[in-house]
Design a protein that fits this description.
POT_fam; symporter activity; 4 strands; 274 residues; disordered N terminus; peptide transport; single chain; globular; two-stranded antiparallel ribbon; mainly alpha
């Protein structure tokens, strides 16, 4: 075995018997023994147990729950979006279909910009945190109540030409754009950020299985539950009341991330981009 430098006993210069070229005492690597105090070992054990769930870091649990809520919010809102366009914004079938597919297309184009921002500027965590706030603002804009002129026995023509209703349409488009930026921007970052929470020698395959299970579970549940809730009152008008509920679900992961970011002990692991 080769001699290694041990930093416990510093020395100014090496001697002839021990050919070490640093200013520290050299010992043989086979004789090195790591002695950790009992209290320090207890603290490390307590920290490991408090920061791990089922053998995985606590941050993994938060990422999985966050992704489930985000997918539930997105697909639940998208399930009633065409009805929302037709019966609240008073668009015809062609216009509602065109705007719906444009919204979906933008949602799948923005991941390119999210990946560029994460790799070259903000990093994964700040990108996810910032765009989650944008996502939340978009859900809040979509949760605004419909203006008064479109309720009651008001003619459709008068309702559409009303200035307040025109502003409401514009706000809805802004909300959809913010949602598209938020949901698309965080899409390429979350799975990569989850992989960063593991050490190099830890198994990641099970995490990605659970991660994609949470995505599909959130999508399936929201797609099934939202039409059921809409049909409980037997009318389409209750679809608008679902959006604030979905918005409330989507804000919970943002609150958890904000609290963790402001805490003294950062549970997240950040890796430099190579």
């Amino acid at each position: 075995s080769m001699p290694t430098c041990y930093r416990k006993k510093p020395r100014a210069f090496p001697n002839k018997k021990n050919p070490c070229k640093c200013s520290f005492e050299c010992i043989w690597s086979s004789r090195v023994e790591m002695k950790i105090p009992v209290k320090q070992m207890q603290k490390q054990t307590e920290y490991y147990l408090s920061s791990h769930v089922c053998g995985y870091p606590l941050s993994i649990f938060i990422i999985v729950v966050n992704e489930f809520c985000e997918r539930f919010s997105y697909y639940g809102m998208r399930a009633v979006l065409v009805l929302y366009f037709k019966y609240f914004l008073r668009w015809d079938d062609d216009t509602a279909t065109a705007i719906y597919h444009s919204f979906v297309a933008v949602c799948y184009l923005t991941p390119i910009f999210g990946a560029i921002i994460a790799d070259s500027w903000l990093g994964k965590f700040k990108t996810i945190f910032s765009l989650s706030i944008v996502y939340t603002i978009g859900q809040a804009v979509m949760a605004v109540k419909s203006p008064g002129p479109c309720h009651g026995r008001v003619k459709v023509y008068d309702c559409i030409k009303h200035k307040v209703f025109i502003c409401f349409r514009a706000l809805s488009m802004i909300g959809l754009l913010l949602i598209a930026i938020g949901t698309g921007g965080i899409k390429p970052c979350v799975s990569a950020f989850g992989g960063d929470q593991f050490e190099d020698n830890q198994q990641r395959s099970r995490f990605f299985s659970i991660f994609y299970l949470s995505i599909n579970a959130g999508s399936l549940l929201s797609t099934v539950i939202t039409p059921i809730l809409r049909g409980m009152n037997g009318r389409v008008t209750c679809t608008h009341s679902l959006i604030p509920g979905q918005f409330g679900i989507s804000t919970q992961p943002c609150d958890m991330e904000e609290k963790l970011e402001n805490s003294k002990e950062d549970p997240w692991k950040h890796r430099q981009n190579v």
